[in-house]
Design a protein that fits this description.
Blueprint (H helix, E strand, L loop, with lengths): L1 H4 L8 E6 L4 H16 L7 E7 L5 H15 L5 H8 L2 E5 L5 H18 L4 E6 L6 H10 L14 E6 L6 H14 L5 E4 L6 H12 L12 E9 L8 H4 L3 H19 L8 H13 L9 H4 E6 L17 E6 L11 E6 L6 E8 L17 E7 L3 E9 L7 E9 L12 H11 L8 H16 L6 E4 L13
Parallel strand pairs: 1-2, 1-4, 2-3, 4-5, 5-6, 7-10, 8-15
Antiparallel strand pairs: 7-11, 8-9, 9-10, 11-12, 12-13, 13-14
Helix pairs in contact: 2-3, 2-13, 3-4, 6-7, 7-14, 10-11, 10-14, 11-14
The chain binds 6-O-phosphono-beta-D-glucopyranose.
The site of 6-O-phosphono-beta-D-glucopyranose has 4 residues, from helix 10.
Length: about 475
């Protein structure tokens, strides 16, 4: 898929503007993704990056900073290629709240357009804290930066924004209303980078290109589905962002629910952006809201020991760094099948996976009395991307004994591993192509908040459990 998709590159002049270029996201993800695309010759021939930040940097200081960031964070090691790439980047100082600075930015973009000889495509990436979204979006609009080119065949304008989209259903709706007042839905690219991870994209390919699984992909054959996003990192340098956001808003409302959507959605019939996003939204709409009275049974919230001693965290912080939710879908395919969602920081291992547990086989062939064989299908998202299927076989030998074995596929073992695209690389490339499949739609955001908001509202009635750094997380009776 990756190799073909690069043939789909656009080749019309394009300017990529990063608001918040000096920030962590830009440094670790965006600049490296753009360099990767440049390395693969997947960017338009006429391409310019304009980085905007408050910093009082000269062009030279900025380019040195970008080069150092790329040397540390990128897998591309070719120095002359990095230099060529950095030569295409311009710095523009700006205060996000000052309309005049947007007008100055517009002049810079005009000059680039003149050098290109036409009005180019514009991509505006908001790599800033979410509370700055409204002011930036309004100023992009007021300053005329949001206008599309008027000439035939000339450029489009697109906005990329990062999760979290709001703090709850109310603020998400407000942000959405602002976006839809200022831009057309086709111009808005809401990033949930998990959607662009290779193995998550693979779920649809796997489910809908292998006829053997679809007939058993339902409550009659599947016992439970467990979705985990475990991290070993603490909140570290992101305390300012994390405190007051917490694990459920940070990754629950977005990454975990998107994984659930992909594994549980119906076959969209067609594999275009509209149909796939609709199918994802539909399944999110069907999530049963966890009732207040069921919270104790279905939800765990916890914080790692030492979180409150991290620099910048209030001593009385109740922000969760871990959550666990048992959820259900109200549809005929999944009625009664629990979907367990678990995520936490500072845990024993870094692991993202989806495990599909098929029902135990009651009529097991030659099983020991305490043996409960079942097939388990695992989508390994990271590390070691791949797919595994557990199945039972006869143990070799004269005895009749049944043992468990695995069929496994690992991306690392396939020839095309070098073609594996990083999630951001995929997203920026798709945004350039105008393909919104791997971006969250307004409906998906709405339904995921509808599920998460009632839990957040009642958060305080649940005990905040403490767990040790480097442990498996809170050991609860609910944990599998
Ligand atoms: C981000 C969250 O969206 O995803 C982080 O804000 C989290 O807290 C990260 O660490 C995980 O992403 P990845 O790609 O490193 O698994």
């Amino acid at each position: 898929m990756t190799s073909n998709s690069y043939k789909l590159k656009i080749n019309t002049p394009t300017i990529f503007v990063i608001f918040g270029v000096s920030g962590d996201l830009s440094k670790r993800k965006l600049l490296t993704a753009l360099l990767d695309l440049f390395n693969r010759q997947a960017l338009p021939d006429k391409f310019r990056i304009v980085g905007v930040s408050r910093r009082d940097w000269t062009q030279e200081v900025f380019k040195k900073w970008v080069t150092e960031a790329l040397v540390i964070n990128s897998k591309v090691k070719n120095k002359s290629l990095i230099k060529k790439f950095v030569d295409q980047i311009t710095f523009q100082q700006g205060d996000f709240t000052n309309l005049n600075d947007y007008k100055k930015l517009a002049e810079v973009l005009d000059r680039v357009d003149n050098s290109f000889g036409q009005c180019s495509n514009k991509m505006y990436h908001l790599a800033v804290p979410p509370d700055l979204y409204p002011v930036i979006l309004k100023n992009i609009n007021k300053s005329g930066l949001g206008e599309v080119c008027s000439g035939e065949g000339e450029g489009w304008t697109r906005i990329l924004i990062e999760k979290p989209f709001g703090r709850d259903i109310k603020t998400a709706t407000k942000l959405d209303m602002l976006l839809s007042r200022l831009f057309d839905e086709r111009q808005i690219f809401r990033i949930d980078h998990y959607l662009a991870k290779e193995t998550l994209q693979n779920i649809l390919a796997f489910r809908f290109s292998n006829a053997i699984f679809e007939p058993v992909w339902n409550k009659d054959h599947i016992d439970k589905i467990v979705i985990k996003l475990k991290e070993t990192d603490t909140v570290d340098s992101r305390v300012n962002f994390y405190e007051g956001v917490g694990a459920l808003r940070d990754v629950g409302q977005s990454h975990l629910l998107q994984m659930l959507a992909l594994v549980a959605m119906e076959n969209p019939g067609q594999f275009d952006a509209v149909s796939i996003r609709k199918a994802r939204a539909k399944v999110l709409k069907e999530l049963s809201v966890v009732r207040r009275g069921d919270l104790g049974e279905s939800v765990v919230r916890a914080q790692y020991q030492g979180y409150k001693s991290e620099k910048g965290i209030p001593k009385n912080s109740t922000t969760e760094t871990y959550f666990y939710i048992k959820s259900f879908l109200k549809n005929s395919r999944w009625k009664g099948v629990p979907f367990y969602l678990e995520s936490g920081k500072a845990l024993d291992k870094a692991l993202v996976e989806i495990k599909v547990y098929f029902k135990e086989d009651a009529g097991c062939f030659e099983c020991a009395t305490d043996q409960k064989p079942r097939n388990v299908l695992t989508f390994l998202i990271q590390p070691d991307e791949g797919i595994e299927l557990c199945f039972m076989v006869k143990k070799p030998g004269l005895d009749l004994e049944v043992i468990e074995k695995k069929l496994a596929f690992k991306y690392a073992e396939v020839e095309e591993e070098s073609l594996l695209a990083d999630a951001y690389e995929r997203l920026l490339f798709d945004c350039m192509r105008g393909d919104q499949t791997l971006f969250a739609s307004t409906e998906e955001i709405k339904y995921s908040w509808k599920f998460v908001t009632p839990i957040l509202k009642n958060w305080q009635i649940l005990p905040l459990i403490n767990y040790k750094k480097g442990s498996e997380g809170p050991r609860q009776k609910l944990i599998l």
